[in-house]
């Protein structure tokens, strides 16, 4: 039996949450506080040898009313300057997710909280309309899914992504989507309309073809074969698709690079990309705990390889290096990717999306302005 030796300060974190709560079906092993929390909790034995039922963690969803939804960035190593996040947190729960540290800004843990305490922004489509109608707005590709997945399971209920897509279609605004969720197939009707005029393409991330590794690493993401089927369905509907080997996990999945690219090409992908495993901030410790539990025989090798990519550290956030790492192993992956994509005809980027079609649709009262 365990007791808590202190209470969490956060207003959003339940005081009844055990820091090492039952994590069945989740990737993070712990719920350690984020870097802004002033107090930690630690489970200590009270000496009673009484077996406890550890409750299963359920997913909860809070709502947020955003004043604006388009987030700008000036990062020189990402190919877009704006993005939208319909949700905060992601129930897909990939252990390697580099968005985990953003949960610390909410007073929540980048560990289990990130996978279970989600925030939906149901009024995001209306906020988007306001932003796109602003006289000063200039169109450029909006990226969706580059932080948290817009097609995570709660989208089925909330349908925020679908309503955002309808807005973008009505405004003829270009959008690039990244997802692992097969729920995107629900929106093929909208996406194929947009693709027909060069307003959308999709990246589907396939990290491994091994369902067991995937289940451990990305517990609530559709299985690899299901993601390949999504590539096929999008491609058959005329939507350009890129297969993303993202991330490559050194000494765990890197040997699958060519096989994933081949499977993606066979499913209809027209382009490909890769990103090396990134372990920023709290993700480093969460990943280490996970890999030591799930792959104890390989953990030291995996972490050693990771550090060899970043000059002896778990992660180097420097622009230009953070996506690939550097050194012989990074060079080898880069070379293998180049050879395989050339052989498979995946070595060209997708056709750039169009911005010249942007046109706010008429709204009530517009006619009056003619007189
Ligand atoms: S699907 Fe993407 S956003 Fe969601 S947990 Fe996995 S890596 Fe993070």
TrEMBL record:
Gene3D superfamilies given in the database record: 3.80.30.30
PROSITE patterns documented for this protein: RADICAL_SAM
Radical SAM core domain ranges (all copies): 76-313
Region feature Disordered, mapped onto this chain: 16-44
Entry keywords, A to Z: Iron, Iron-sulfur, Metal-binding
InterPro entries: Elp3/MiaA/NifB-like_rSAM, MJ0683-like, rSAM, rSAM_sf
The keyword Membrane is assigned to this record: no
One term of GO molecular function: iron-sulfur cluster binding
Domain of life according to the entry: Bacteria
Basic and acidic residues bias locations: 34-44
NCBIfam families: rSAM_PA0069
Protein name (database record): PA0069 family radical SAM protein
Native species: Kangsaoukella pontilimi
Taxonomic lineage: Bacteria, Pseudomonadati, Pseudomonadota, Alphaproteobacteria, Rhodobacterales
């Amino acid at each position: 039996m365990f007791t808590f030796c202190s209470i969490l300060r956060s207003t959003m974190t339940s005081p009844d949450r055990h820091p090492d709560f039952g994590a069945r079906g989740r990737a993070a092993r712990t719920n350690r506080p984020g870097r802004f929390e002033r107090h930690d909790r630690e489970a200590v034995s009270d000496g009673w040898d009484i077996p406890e039922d550890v409750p299963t963690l359920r997913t909860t969803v809070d709502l947020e009313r955003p004043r604006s939804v388009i987030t700008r960035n000036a990062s020189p190593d990402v190919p877009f300057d704006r993005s939208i996040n319909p949700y905060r947190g992601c129930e897909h729960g990939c252990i390697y997710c580099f968005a985990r540290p953003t949960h610390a800004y909410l007073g929540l843990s980048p560990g289990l909280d990130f996978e279970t305490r989600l925030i939906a922004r149901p009024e995001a489509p209306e906020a988007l309309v306001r932003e796109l109608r602003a006289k000063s707005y200039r169109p450029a590709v909006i990226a969706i899914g580059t932080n948290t997945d817009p097609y995570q399971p709660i989208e089925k209920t909330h349908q925020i992504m679908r309503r955002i897509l309808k807005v973008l279609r009505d405004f003829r605004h270009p959008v690039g989507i990244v997802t692992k969720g097969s729920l995107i197939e629900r929106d093929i009707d909208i996406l194929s309309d947009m693709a027909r005029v060069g307003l959308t393409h999709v990246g589907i991330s396939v990290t491994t073809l091994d369902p067991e590794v995937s289940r451990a690493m990305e517990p609530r993401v559709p299985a690899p074969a299901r993601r390949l089927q999504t590539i096929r369905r999008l491609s058959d509907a005329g939507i350009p698709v890129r297969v993303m080997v993202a991330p490559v996990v050194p000494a765990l999945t890197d040997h699958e690079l060519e096989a994933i690219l081949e499977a993606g090409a066979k499913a209809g992908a027209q382009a490909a990309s890769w990103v090396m495993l990134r372990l920023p901030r709290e993700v480093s410790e969460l990943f280490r705990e996970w890999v030591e539990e799930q792959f104890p025989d390989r953990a030291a090798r995996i972490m050693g390889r990771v550090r060899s990519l970043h000059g002896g550290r778990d992660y180097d956030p420097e622009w230009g290096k953070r996506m690939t790492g550097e050194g012989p192993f990074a060079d080898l992956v880069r070379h293998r990717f180049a050879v395989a994509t050339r052989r498979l005809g995946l070595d060209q980027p997708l056709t750039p999306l169009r911005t010249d079609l942007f046109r706010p649709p008429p709204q009530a009262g517009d006619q009056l302005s003619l007189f």
